[in-house]
Specification:
Number of strands: 0
Shape: elongated
Strand content: under 5%
Largest sheet: none
Order of helices and strands: HH
Radius of gyration: 16 Å
Length: about 60
């Protein structure tokens, strides 16, 4: 289920980093949070694209 609640990038990074055993040095934290904010914005754009219920993903990728 996709939530429409806004994400606080700083809180998300703070909460998610320990879950994946990731230690973020303080000097990099601002950049990591900014990068995640950009990723979240792109994900919102992708997730907002309407798809018809009949569409299904291809079983094999063929370029």
């Amino acid at each position: 289920m996709v939530s429409n609640l806004p994400i606080d990038p700083a809180r998300f990074v703070e909460a998610a980093a320990p879950l994946v055993d990731l230690s973020i040095q303080e000097c990099y934290r601002e950049g990591v949070v900014a990068a995640f904010a950009g990723i979240a914005a792109l994900a919102e754009l992708v997730n907002s694209f309407p798809l018809e219920p009949a569409l299904e993903p291809a079983p094999v990728f063929q370029p």
